[in-house]
Amino acid sequence: MTGSITKNKQTGKWDFVFNGGIDPLTGKRKQIKRRGFESKRHAMDEMTKLKAEILENEFLDLTKMTYSRYMEEWFEERKNRLQKTTFEIHSIYYRNVIKPRLGHLKVHQIAPIQLQKFINDLVNDTSYSKHTIHLIFRIVSASLKKAKILKLIKDNPANGITLPKIKRKEISVWSLEQVNYFINEAKGVKRLTRCYIGFLMSILTGMRQGEILGLRWKDIDIEAQIIFVRQTLTQNAEIKAGAKNEASVRSIHIPSKLVDELRTHKKQVLEEKLLLGSSYCQLDLVICTKSGKPMIPRNFRKEFYNLTEKIGLPKIRFHDLRHTHATILIQQNVNVKLISERLGHADIQTTLNTYSHVLPDMQKSVSDKLEKIIGM
């Protein structure tokens, strides 16, 4: 573990650098640097001290690697995979909740009983909601799943941990009659919001808010009547390539009525583009401000709530339009697998779990059909 001490010509102070060995997680050589020491002796003492700490550290020995050291590298990977806001939230929960309680443990020695106690303590000794505890556990579980893939551990100790039961919230949706009322009445509203086309897309495609706000004209094949979900807009109004998961990058066939509305909306956008000329923001967005800039998500939702109030419909969340879309399709006996693909769910089980409230009625329709076709 060689090193060198040099005097910085610019600052007049002493710096040192030495080889810290090979990081077993990355395979890269780690170079340790420190700057700004008042004397060469001080720099030498600090370098000697740091070398001793490195030698005792888990950095050179996987069997001594602590969970906190492993998580430093794991979060570097997550930074490139998660949306910025999601990454920040996960980082906060790790620093404030997970690291103080689990960070000191050796990765290969973490046992299920320790994780169960970790969850039990969060339930009994903190004010975190059940949803938050589930999120915190998902962070831990995902990190240990990756540790298994990296062969740092033989089994994932997070498997089989008992979590607090979350009572499923009832989904609020509009009926088919209310959907038709919304579409018909909105047309008569004076100075109808430019966001109306986005509301229609949610009702008729089941697309998520971020997918709608990130949609570009080049992602729509008007002739084939297909929308391609290829990018999204985050809550901070930042454009992000891809979608929520691999299944969410998909194509959605749309009805001709939506195609007609898109054509009308495009004319309006083109007029605004011509009016502003070079000042127009060339992002090719379908839903945007008059200058072509991304629509701020909270403003988009506010427009929906204002329109809903104007025409006198029950208030529902904007995301509930997606639920409304799925519920109507289920009630019309559309194959659940097709609905799952349309919504961009990772698997059909997600669809079945989310819309289980509709299934009892579907079962009744099946029994009614059997009554008609089976002669007994």
Strand order of the largest sheet: 1-2-3
Helix coverage percent? 40-55%
Instruction: List the total number of helices.
Output: 14
Report the portion of residues in β strands. 5-15%
* CATH fold field value of the largest domain: hpI Integrase, Chain A
Q: Which structural class do the helices and strands define? A: mainly alpha
Distance between the termini: 87 Å
Give Rg in angstroms: 28 Å
Overall CATH architecture of the largest domain: Orthogonal Bundle
Compressed to H and E, one letter per element, the order equals EEEHHHHHHHHEEEEEHHHHHH
Q: Looking at this structure, what is the CATH superfamily of the largest domain?
A: Intergrase catalytic core
> What's the total number of strands?
8
Please write the CATH class name of the largest domain.
Mainly Alpha
Low-confidence stretches: none
Give the mean pLDDT. Answer: 90
Task: Estimate the global geometry from the Cα principal axes.
Answer: globular
Q: Main sheet?
A: 3 strands, antiparallel
| Total domain modules | 3
Structural account:
By secondary structure, the chain is mainly α. It folds into three domains: 3-52, no CATH class; 67-149, Tyrosine recombinase, N-terminal domain (DNA polymerase, domain 1), CATH 1.10.150; 176-346, Intergrase catalytic core (hpI Integrase, Chain A), CATH 1.10.443.10. The protein is built from 14 helices and eight strands. It has helices at residues 40-56, 67-79, 84-102, 112-125, 130-149, 176-186, 196-205, 209-213, 256-276, 297-310, 319-331, 336-343, 348-354, 359-373, and strands at residues 3-7, 14-22, 29-37, 220-221, 226-228, 231-233, 239-241, 251-253. A three-stranded antiparallel beta sheet has the order 1-2-3, covered by helices on one side. A three-stranded antiparallel beta sheet has the order 4-5-8, with no helix packed on it. Strands 6-7 form a two-stranded antiparallel sheet. Helix 2 packs antiparallel against helix 3 (84-102) and helix 7 packs parallel to helix 11. It is globular and about 85 Å long.
